[in-house]
From TrEMBL:
SUPFAM superfamilies xrefs: Pentein (SSF55909)
Keyword Hydrolase: yes
Record key words, sorted: Hydrolase
Organism: Rhodanobacter soli
Source species, domain of life: Bacteria
Name recorded for this polypeptide: Agmatine/peptidylarginine deiminase
Length: 349
């Protein structure tokens, strides 16, 4: 039987910090490093307005370079902690820790478990040996204090799951079937319930974005929000190849029920115009936003739909400031704002 004393918190719960890794010439960002650093600087500036930021850097030279970039932009370096570790790339949503917690916020017995799933470079598409060791490296560096570290020998990325903090986990069949083709939905549901201390797993069969090499991570498609809401990426252009698939996904979301049997309140996001780069379409999802203490950081792509997407996300997260972060450089490498970050619950760091 699953022990429900631990749980996977919702992203909108209080946080200690956000974790990122700085891009450098040894990562896939090398070709457009200067452009992507502008996004990282903007992200750091936004996060440090609200809470602490932990930046993983490959070495002392990169730390000095990042500090210089941030200082020039007026970012408060007192709110940033740097940790030197090797990494293959900077998608910490997928290589970072999935943190379970137990105990109440005001309880001195509050405890944490860093759940360290196997990271395979999105199903073996890319080399990932250093990224797979990242959580252990952060633990050894003392970043997480006395938190327990549990290795799980099963491939899962943080971008592949959404939690409402109350025992419901949302994921996509396309992604997990690619990672585990030998396992049934029932078998994978049992593993997710056990490893994440969840009560139930909700599956989406439809939904994808061209240019997304994660095999339909849920955080590019649909996100839980407080008050039994779901924010999701819609497509209102019948001539777009995504239209039918995302319409089917919207119907699946409408059919989902809360643990108490009620329909979710749905918030469809507008569709950005296609972004074509060197002949390939890039995945510009507004669903890939990051929640921090008191705010939501929303991707902006220089598209006419940016402001409407920010407004809708704000309506689904009332009481939080909405901060747009320029993310067009990120989608060149097939991800966006949420993909490069991992939030850490309050009390952990």
């Amino acid at each position: 039987m699953t022990d429900h004393s631990l749980r996977l918190p919702a992203e909108w719960e209080p946080q200690a910090a956000v974790l990122i890794a700085w891009p450098h010439a040894g990562t896939d960002w090398a070709e457009r490093l200067a452009a992507v650093e502008t996004t990282y600087v903007a992200l750091a500036a936004a996060v440090t307005r609200f809470q602490q930021l932990i930046i993983v850097v490959a070495d002392a030279a990169l730390k000095a370079h990042a500090q210089s970039q941030l200082r020039d932009a007026g970012v408060d370096l007192a709110k940033i902690r740097f940790v030197e570790l090797p990494y293959d790339d900077t998608w910490l949503r997928d290589s970072g820790p999935i943190t379970l917690m137990g105990g109440a916020a005001a309880d001195s017995r509050r405890y944490f478990q860093l759940t360290d799933f196997r990271f395979t470079g999105w199903g073996g598409k890319f080399g990932a040996e250093q990224d797979d060791a990242l959580v252990a490296g952060l633990v050894d560096a003392g970043v997480f204090g006395e938190a327990a570290h549990k290795r799980v020998d099963w491939a899962l990325e943080g971008g592949g799951i959404e939690s409402d903090g109350e025992g419901s986990v949302l994921t996509t069949w396309r992604c997990l079937a690619q990672r585990h083709p030998e396992q049934s939905r029932e078998e994978m549901s049992a593993i997710l319930r056990d490893s994440l201390h969840a009560k139930r797993v909700l599956w989406l069969d439809y939904g994808y974005l061209e240019g997304d090499d994660t095999d339909a991570h849920i955080d590019t498609l649909a996100r839980f929000a407080p008050g039994e809401r779901i924010v999701f990426q819609a497509c209102d252009d019948p001539g777009d190849p995504h239209h039918g698939e995302l319409q089917r996904m919207a119907a699946e979301l409408a059919a989902l029920r809360t643990a108490d049997g009620r329909p979710y309140r749905l918030y469809p996001l507008p569709w950005a115009q296609p972004v074509i780069d060197e002949g390939r379409r890039l995945a510009a999802s507004y669903a890939n936003y990051l929640i921090v203490n008191g705010a939501v950081l929303v991707p902006a792509y220089g598209d006419k739909a940016d402001d409407e997407a920010a407004r809708i996300i704000g309506s689904a997260h009332p009481g939080r400031e909405i901060v747009q972060v320029p993310c067009r450089p990120l989608i060149w490498q097939n991800g966006s704002l949420h993909c490069i970050t991992m939030q850490l619950p309050a009390g952990l760091a």
